[in-house]
């Protein structure tokens, strides 16, 4: 089970890297920033099943680690205005951070799987990921909106 979940984690990290590189080639919009946490939130349905439920302490630990990890994603997610559109800047550090987060996640999973039930561990890692993506995306959204206002002011000033 640990090997299968590690393979899935590697595939997901690869998917994130590819999506991030493609995203930098096209202008972004608020919907592209906001929707991923909403889509991911459906994963909370796993907690309907008792096997995935976590204790309060496990929830808090997973959430705090996710919030800590989000800081690295926030630091490497910047926008820029190009040709009257807003683009996500390419960051070489982002690739290394995603890989480092994956390595840390796999190491944590291997270490914790000896003391925490596999189902609860799955729940904890979902909480960790959700706790990481929500603040990251909120920060991205506020940065995007700030640049969007700047761009609109610039366009208004050019037409006047």
In short:
The protein has 160 residues and is mainly alpha-helical. Helix content is 73%, strand content 5%. The protein has a two-stranded antiparallel sheet.
Describe this structure in words.
The protein is mainly α and 160 residues long. The protein has one domain (2-159). The protein is built from five helices and two strands. The protein has helices at 2-23, 30-41, 56-75, 92-112, 118-159; strands spanning 79-82, 85-88. It has a two-stranded antiparallel ribbon with strand order 1-2. The radius of gyration is 18 Å and the shape is elongated. The mean pLDDT is 88.
Q: Can you lay out the helices and strands and say which pair or pack?
A:
Layout: H1 2-23, H2 30-41, H3 56-75, E1 79-82, E2 85-88, H4 92-112, H5 118-159
Antiparallel strand pairs: 1-2
Helix pairs in contact: 1-4, 2-5, 3-5
């Amino acid at each position: 089970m640990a090997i299968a979940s590690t393979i899935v984690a590697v595939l997901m990290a690869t998917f994130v890297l590819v999506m991030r590189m493609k995203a930098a080639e096209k202008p972004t919009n608020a919907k592209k920033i906001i929707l991923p946490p909403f889509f991911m939130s459906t994963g909370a349905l796993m907690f309907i099943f008792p096997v995935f439920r976590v204790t309060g302490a496990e929830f808090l630990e997973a959430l705090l680690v996710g919030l800590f990890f989000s800081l690295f994603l926030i630091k490497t997610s910047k926008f820029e205005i190009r040709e009257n559109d807003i683009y996500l800047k390419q960051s070489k550090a982002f690739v290394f951070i995603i890989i480092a987060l994956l390595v840390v996640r796999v190491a944590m999973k291997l270490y914790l799987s000896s003391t925490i039930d596999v189902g609860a561990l799955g729940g904890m890692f979902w909480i960790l990921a959700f706790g990481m993506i929500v603040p990251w995306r909120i920060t991205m959204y506020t940065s995007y909106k700030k640049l969007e206002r700047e761009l609109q002011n610039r366009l208004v000033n050019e037409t006047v």
